Structures are given as C-alpha cells and as structure tokens.
Amino acid sequence: MTINMEELKEIIIKELFLEDITPGDIDDNAPLFGGGLGLDSLDAVELVVIIQKHFNVEIKDMDEGRVAFESIKSLASFIEEHQKS
Amino acid sequence: MKIYINGTGIAGGFGCGSNVLLNRLHTGVACEPSSQDGYYPAFHADISSLYDFVPKKSLRRIDHFSQLALTGAYLTFNEAGQDSFDKMATGLVLCSGYGSAKTTFSFLDSIIDSGDICASPTLFSNSVHNAAAGHISMMLGIEGPCLTVSQFEISVYSGLLSAIQWLREERVGQVLFGAVDEYFDVLGYCYQRRYGRNSNISMSPLAPGIQSAVPGEGAAFFLLSRDKATNCYGAITSVNTGSVKDFDDILPEESFYILNADGHIESDKNYSKIIPEGSLVSCYTPYYGSIPTGPAFDMAIAALSLREGRIFPVPVNVIRPDNYRIPVQESTLNQGNISCVKAGVKGEFSIITLSHPG
To answer: Are B204 and B314 in contact (CB under 8 A)?
Structure first.
C-alpha cells in the first residue's frame, strides 16, 4: 500500500502536538530529528507507538529507527516495505 | 498567626485573570455554559494568558490540566510582582478533586484500543498524580517542598491546612497554593446520563428541589505568606471543618458568607442547617460552575471583596431565600470577615474565613 505522505505528516503533527506547523511546512527529505521539526528522543518513542498504532508496523530497534526516522520520505518507505512483508 | 494573600491568579468560565473576574462580579450576570463535545453543557476555562508567559511550542507535551495550573501559577507571580523570588524558600501545594482526568482516561483508552504496547509515554507522564505540580516547579524554578492533594471536595481545605502549617513552622517563606480541576468528556457523559441532555440549563443554586449543577473547570491560585505585601488582598484567619450536629464554635461572629452552593440538590439543602437565619449570604458559582475545588474560587472572590471593600451582587439566577439577606446590588463591605462555606451531602461542611489584612 502506498503511503500518502501528507496524511502521514498530519498524523505526526496531531499526535506529537506540533503547534503552529502544517503539513506544508515539513520537507519530505528534511531530517525529522535535530533539524527543523526539532523532535527529540521522547518524540522518537512516541513515533514508534504512533507508527504501530496507525499502520501496524513495528520498529523493533534503534537500527531500524535510525533508518525509518531519517525523513518523512524514508518513514513512508519503511512503512510501505514492512506492511508488505 | 495571620497568613496573608499577597497575590492571586485565576482562570475559569468567566475568563482569565482577577481583573476579568472583578468585571464579571460588578455586572452580576452569570456566565453561559456551552457544550464542546456534544455532551452536557459546561463552563470552559480561558487559558490564553498562559501564552503571554510561555511559548506555545514549549507547552506541546503539557496537558490541559497542567496548562490550567500553569496559567494560575504564572498569573499569581505576575500579579504579586515577583519576577524573581527565593526559590528554596517557596513551597507549592496543588489541590484537585479529579486530577488530570482527561489525560488519565485518554491513556487508559489507548491501552484498551491498541494494547499496552501502544500506550503513549507522554500521556502516561501527564497522568501521574504530581505531574502538574512538577511542571509548575520546573517552569517557575520552585525548589521548596511540593505537594499535590486530592480529596475530592475537601481537597482545598486539606491543601490549605498543609500550606498554613508549612508557613507556621517557618519551613518556607511563602507558599504558592493552587486549586485546579478540568472538564473532561467522561464527566459530561456522566452528567448527561444522570440528568438528561438539558442543553439550555442555567445554574440556579439554592433553588429547593431543582437540580441545576453545571460542571466547570479552572484554576485558582494564591501566594500565601507570613509577611504582608503592599498589594496584599487579605488574611486567612481560620480554616475549619465540622458537621451540622456540632458546629457552634466554628462560625465567626460577624461574617459575610459566600456559599459554594452549586445546584446539587442534596448538598444545597444543607446550607440552611449551617448558616444562621438573617445572615448576609451570597453565592457566585454561576460564574465558574460546579467544581470540586470550587471553594478556592470563592476564596478568590472573597479576596477581591476585601481588596475592593465591596460586596458584589449575587448573580441574577441565584434563588434568593427569604431567610437570608442577599446582596442584590453592589454595596460597601462592612463586615470584618468573609467566610467561604462548602456543605457536603451528609451534613459535613468546611469554612475558610478571610479578613482585612489590618
């Protein structure tokens, strides 16, 4: 299943309570952590829960997380790949 | 020993800040409840002033309950003119009847809906009993003792007694004392199940046989100290609890009584068993609603009455019983004391008495 990146952004904004940010403000290729969005380690834990809850995809360890959380685009790819398997 | 009120910070269905409440008290017009979730109408608090003190972005992980508490805390220090204070010598007592119920129910729902593996760590951390007090301590830098009290309708009295005791022991120089309760959809659902849809309800406290309680939410905070500041509101002279069977020594001799009658039939009927006939009595719950920590809101109104030297008119929809003197118009406060009275269903009651700072 193809992941709609705008929907994914909306879910992240809503679930992480990102005030005053719209999906249009998030660059598909920009890093999620330490960059423009300013997410931190607690957000990473929340993101693992959010991805499992909304897409039934489990991010099992830090190595997987590092790849998945690189950007919105990589997160969407990770979800697509793991939903297939 | 007198305990002085050197600042207040209040938010509720009437708006945000003591000046907004004061304007409302002058008008005598009750607030309009509204339904935001399709359940029972309620008085929802305005916490927009919080963003004057804290950037919205840094509040994103702090839930509504804690934001209510932070609003009260920031407003209090701002009003008291304490941009900097002795952090080690400042204590914090926070009271709540329900606590952060909205977050706690959301956390439980997340487990029920998606399993414990999908439980939100942010919701969990905000649902912890002392979370709101922790947020206040961290954001304002309070390093003294910190306590959260939850004993439903006697939370305010229990918390106030602890705060006063800390000051008497000279454990701290001042205490930020606050009461917070929030509206949550489970509460609205329960009201609706018990009392019907009732979308046009208005609070009519003290009306015999009429159930008119409307849930509310808000925060009422006070900066308490042994030392009187120049902008002091008044002094807390006594905090007592009793029962209708034995209360002769508790009532002050000459007082203006503010009743926390909130439209619940079972408790409203007990005020006439406590307060002597002919007493000067008012009730201001239609400004903020039925809240377990309601006595703290009455305490804020009493503090404003003392500071302004005025008795504010009773809101128009409060029933005016024949056996009491009711202030239908604003007048000069001639009484030395103002007593905030809360009666319970079983005849238990509590009284906080405030007086001029002298």
So the answer is: no
